[in-house]
Amino acid sequence: MELQNKATSLWGNFFKITMVQIRTFHMAWFAFFLCFFAWFGIAPLMVVVREELGLTKDQIGWIIIASVSVTIFARLLIGWLCDRIGPRLTYTGLLMLGAFPVMGIGLAQDFTSFLIFRLMIGAIGAAFVITQYHTTVMFAPNVVGQANATSAGWGNLGGGVTQFAMPLIFSIFVVGLGFSESVGWRLSMIVVGVAIFLTGIAYFFWTKDAPDGNFAELRAQGKMMQKKQVTGNYFEALKDSRVWVLFVIYGACFGIELTVNNVAALYFADYFELNLVTAGLVAASFGLMNIFARTLGGIFGDNYGALWGLKGRAFWLFICLFCEGLALMLFSQMHVLFLALPTLIIFSLFTQMAEGATYSVVPFINKKALGAVAGVVGAGGNAGAVLAGFLFKGSIDWSQAFFIMGVVVTIASFLAFFVRFSTRQEDEERANFAAANIETIRAKAEKANAELEEAIEALAKKRAAEMVAEQSR
């Protein structure tokens, strides 16, 4: 059953937080931003952690794998929970529970304890699925691609901001407040954990599951499927081959981003001999592209959808992924900083546009099991990161590892042609898209009429005042 009263405009209502759709959009991307920040908050401090705990290259490889592996299972579960209890309660629970391992990693004293906490922190990466789910149920087909892409992109931005923000927070504790380096990185993670916990409380009070209310209320009114139907639809969605194609595709873009977030600071520190702060700033340039790059992927996905329907969205996905693979191979061959940095940015641009393009397709695969599709595809990103992580664990040179990933991504891009839709679904979505556009035009016309009436009324009052003034003279 299709949820009603979805927003047909994002940018036109961007600051209208009185609208539940817009308020939810802002809460979703901000919550994901903090989760992403915490998820990779320890990465730019690994130079210090490696020194203190005496970690080997092999152990760092296992830490990289641990940070993204548990998220695979967390995303599968979170997708089901979103369909069952709603994104509001799911996000609240994830944020408040996830804050504890983020703070708890400060208790780690050796490789084993550090690995366990790093593994547990990875669960908050499932926040992505809730973010995409929540914006999908809040926005209409004509803007859902850009709403999904922007909320996820600004959330992913946390992976870039953390690369320079965490070293700065660390410096405040060590240089400004006089704590030792051993205590400084631990206190830095506690600060992030507290922020996540407070955001979880805010999410509960400031959002709703859907435009017309929470899932419990809508089910009581018969406006959406009952809980007992959720599990059946979940397993039905798993039988759809397109879901697993997108699983692999997302592994080839978001999986690559996760891997780069984990290794970039160490890569630039070891291969280009940069210090902790400088390596963090350079590595941050990759994540900071999320300010606009993923949004571009969603906007073009919506535009391709307007021109060529759902198959247009899939074709745009192929273009992004293919260019990402080529750019990654080029980056792997850059061995001087002034060449490595611009190619890193180009590679980042196409990586994040591919992510936005993926989730401009996801909402149309199976509307009855949106959580299942979003969860499985999202888990594909982490599965890709786990596989890529093994390349950085062994004796292989890291630049060679990047080249191998580029080849794999280029090959994976052709899978986009296997994401196909029936003629009936194409026609149905064209009608929904047109209806959403008509609603947008109607809303703009009403706003213009209201402004015109206000202008006429103001002009009439002014004229009346002038007439009174003339009579008094």
Automatic annotation (TrEMBL):
Name of the protein in its database record: MFS transporter
Pfam families: MFS_1 (PF07690)
SUPFAM superfamilies from the UniProt entry: MFS general substrate transporter
Chain coiled-coil ranges: 431-469
Heme listed as a keyword: no
Domain of life per record: Bacteria
Domain Major facilitator superfamily (MFS) profile: 24-424
Main location: membrane
Transmembrane segments: 27-48, 60-82, 89-108, 154-179, 185-206, 243-268, 274-293, 314-331, 337-357, 369-392, 398-419
Compartments, record wording: Membrane
Alphabetized UniProt keyword annotations: Coiled coil, Membrane, Nitrate assimilation, Transmembrane, Transmembrane helix
Membrane topology: Multi-pass membrane protein
Family from the record: Belongs to the major facilitator superfamily. Nitrate/nitrite porter (TC 2.A.1.8) family.
